[in-house]
From TrEMBL, chains A, B:
Protein name: ornithine decarboxylase
EC number, as in UniProt: 4.1.1.17
Pathway assigned in UniProt: Amine and polyamine biosynthesis; putrescine biosynthesis via L-ornithine pathway; putrescine from L-ornithine: step 1/1
Catalytic activity: L-ornithine + H(+) = putrescine + CO2
Molecular function as annotated in GO: ornithine decarboxylase activity
Cofactor dependence: pyridoxal 5'-phosphate
Length: 373, 373
């Protein structure tokens, strides 16, 4: 098959869903559709009982097309056009996130009576793909916004936060849970009784090295909730990477192996996929995928790994210490593991004339699909 | 019209082509198709007498579909699959760039007898979108590669280099021209007579501030060639940004204006286009576009400017000192100027469910097209 393509094994994603759902008993799992919106994956997650975190009008459409009940959708993006809020509401979505007065004003008009959840700024220290201050507001402002929501025909349900994607420290949720508990307490004094704590995503997967088990994360969150809340609120979580990443293997071909000079420099290995073809999370070498080649086990040496476009920022790894076999040659297949999340939909429509990354379902999934179709 | 969209005025791009062609009399201009492969633009550039620098099989197809003669194409990407070289050769392309033995070996088999041009490493100091060591080889290696090409049935035509895109220093071409002249001289001593000097692209456009005129660049290059070469070689240039950037205005809507806290922080302005929707060159705030709003002239204050996705790296400008009117509100149209190059094809296929950036041709162009159709 012509490379590059992303081979997705949906059964792995479904198993990951069951694993995280079991680690958080009684807590609904909202799959972050943005991680991988492959329709067959969404259908299987609906069957498994999953809920969905959606970022846009199109993601709502995809979830509903997969059979999701609109009341299992959370419109988690805090940056929504008025007409997209109205669309969501008309489709039956009743749970929305916000972090500003501007967004609440739109929600009050276009989603009256809906449950709204205030996103509070959180530290994402320890995350491989950290979050900036782009989302969330300071707790003092959250207080006023939630009061405004209550006074303007919305249902102030609770608080959400996000500790950053691929968060390697299970203890990182605790400070935000403490902040949320303080907000719950202060608002209860005003007669506003919040009930929902959305602990977001960030649950990591093994790329090159083993991460703590999902049970460790669940226990840390459970303990933090127990210690900071006098009465346990309803919880929800929003994993994306955790469910989808292990389900994908990106298949790519070596296009060229070269050196830049006769000095003792690393070889340059150019693949037929790069940062603009789906590997956007290699920006600043943030996500370091595991690679396999037909020569694994043979002697290796350092390489710079780059994509095929004429753009010089299209370099995957230069400083991360990657080594590949000396026997590697143009035409060799390289597998990039753990690429089921945040890859295919990031791909450019055609930068440098290279087509977007295709998704190919694993044979077993395709057989299921034919049987079901 | 629903935002976001890129409004392209093809007549501006054609005028830019004529401007640069006039500044470099007798030098063929190879438009870098990757900058903007809009079919109508390519048709008009063919009519104007433009040649084309292509990066991939698909870009070759686009140029040929626009009516380009294959002998006016240069396959300038130094990272090519063997089958794509064979495709280019079968289509009549006879000019190829390389910077490694691995690439020459493919060219010798799949494009025998073709003119090949060796890309030499150049400094891109002074460029807003600099090039890394990804492309090019050291001059000592170039010597051996060109000798290898001559001995293996290829036509070693010359040398190419690239000083980095949006290069603000007209003097930056001179060191590479000197390197090239030295290679010409050393190879002439071997009986290999190079004849072609490809000075690449990098010619800048006015984004926020005025850059030196294209005539200044042409004169600096002409003077450097005259001073380093005993006999003037054939020249070629490969502008992309210079031709396409001024032809585009990205139309986007304000989705949200917010603050993160009650501290005296900048406002956050969220647009319906961001880094994954076509503004990839705002990475590290490299390319700083000029913005206009319906409130221009009214009092302004500092802002952080961000895109609509749930990805926190989807921030356009945080440190570049952008100010926007205090009157700016959700729904306001913001025009991003000079966005005709390196935008629409960079856009993701659907990250976060947002559709790719559409290109809309200016009314006059559409009328021409109807008349021609």
């Amino acid at each position: 098959m012509d490379t590059p393509y992303l081979l997705v094994d949906i059964s792995i994603a479904v198993a990951q869903y069951h694993r995280i759902a079991a680690a958080f008993p009684g807590t609904p799992v909202y799959y972050a559709v943005k991680a991988n919106p492959e329709p067959t994956l969404l259908i299987e997650l609906v069957r498994a009982g999953c809920h969905f975190d959606v970022a846009s009008r199109n993601e709502i459409g995809l979830a509903l097309a997969a059979g999701a009940d609109p009341v299992t959708l959370s419109f988690g993006n805090t940056i929504k056009k008025a007409e997209d809020i109205a669309y969501a509401y008309a489709q039956g979505v009743r749970l929305f996130a916000f972090d500003s007065l501007g967004e609440l004003e739109k929600l009050a008009v276009h989603a009256p009576g809906s449950a709204v959840v205030c996103r509070v700024l959180a530290s994402s220290k320890g995350a491989r793909w950290p979050l900036s201050r782009k989302f969330g507001c300071a707790p003092e402002m959250a207080l006023d916004l939630i009061r405004w929501a209550a006074a303007n025909g919305l249902d102030p349900a609770g608080v959400c936060f996000h500790v950053g994607s691929q968060q390697l420290d299970p203890g990182r949720w605790e400070p935000s849970i403490a902040d949320a508990a303080a907000l719950f307490a202060r608002l209860a004094a005003d007669g506003i009784n919040l009930r929902l704590l959305n602990c977001g995503g960030g649950f990591p997967v093994d790329y090159q090295t083993e991460v703590a088990s999902i049970d460790k994360y669940a226990k840390a969150i459970d303990a933090a909730v127990a210690s900071h809340f006098p009465a346990r609120p309803a919880l929800m979580i929003e994993p994306g990477r955790y469910i989808a990443a292990p389900a994908g293997v990106l298949h790519t071909e070596v296009v060229l192996v070269s050196r830049k000079s006769y000095a003792d420099e690393p070889r340059w290995v150019y693949l037929d996929v790069g940062r603009f073809g789906g590997l956007a999370e290699t920006e600043d070498e943030a996500i370091q995928y595991r690679l396999s080649t037909p020569h694994d086990g043979a002697p290796t040496a350092p390489v710079v790994l780059a994509g095929p476009t004429c753009d010089s920022v299209d370099i995957l790894y230069q400083n991360a210490g990657y080594e590949l076999p000396l026997a590697l040659r143009p035409g060799d297949l390289v597998r990039i593991h753990g690429t089921g999340a945040y890859t295919a939909t990031y791909a450019s429509v055609g930068f440098n004339g290279f087509p977007p990354l295709r998704t190919v379902l694993d044979r077993a999934d395709r057989a299921d699909r034919r049987a079901a179709g």
